[in-house]
Amino acid sequence: MTATQNSIEQSFECGICHDYLTEVRETPCCHQLFCFTCIQQWLNQGGSCPQCKSTSLTENTLLKNVVLQRIVDNIELDCPYVLAGCSAKVPRCDLENHKQLCPYSTAKLADKQQQKLQKSIALLNQYTETAIPVSDNDLYDLAKALHEQYAYAEARKCFGKMKTKNSSLEIVILQAHIERDDGKYTDALRLYDQAYDMTTSPSQRIELLLAKK
Fold first, then answer.
1. What is the residue range of 204's domain?
2. 98 shares a domain with 65
3. What single string gives the DSSP state of each residue in the chain?
4. Does 125 lie in the same domain as 194?
5. Which of 9, 10, 143, 171 has the fewest CB atoms in 10 Å of its CB?
6. What is the model's pTM?
């Protein structure tokens, strides 16, 4: 942000809460801008003008600034869930509505996670309750997905159907991660040691040693 942009942004801030102005009120004594609730609370506590200290300022003498309020309401802001992946730029007046509908909101992501878990468990049931042949690769992918969803008991069921669960380094490492994350440290250490003995790669061995800590 340039110095000019920064000064413009500051002109839209309340002189009390220093957030964007809401229900803009302007003081007739010094033309300072405040949120209505901020200046109302200030005056109700017996305060003079926060800027020029005029004692003649009252709630009734405050001036509305409709034009400035429109400008402030249409300032585009980042979605509050930008760190979760939302790239939307939202007018300030629409921000609350966007927060409720944003697919990256905490509630929406939790719903998606629950739906994903239900699908994974349904797939696991399909694998375990039918005679359909399933490859170890498919079972590994499902176990990995269940691990990411903290469904450790269900992930273990995938290993029970695998043919190469003790001979594949990738599968042994995943089993170790699951036991570690589920607090089964003795089993996790045993599996990490098994994986360590299965590889000669220095980088993989270092990763396994770090994973044990």
1. 111-211
2. no
3. --HHHHHHHHHTB-TTT-SB-SSEEE-TTT--EEEHHHHHHHHHTT---TTT--SS--GGG-EE-HHHHHHHHT-EEE-TTGGGT---EEEGGGHHHHHHH-TTSHHHHHHHHHHHHHHHHHHHHHHHHS-----HHHHHHHHHHHHHTT-HHHHHHHHHT-SSTTT-HHHHHHHHHHHHHTT-HHHHHHHHHHHHHH---HHHHHHHHHHT-
4. yes
5. 10
6. 0.52
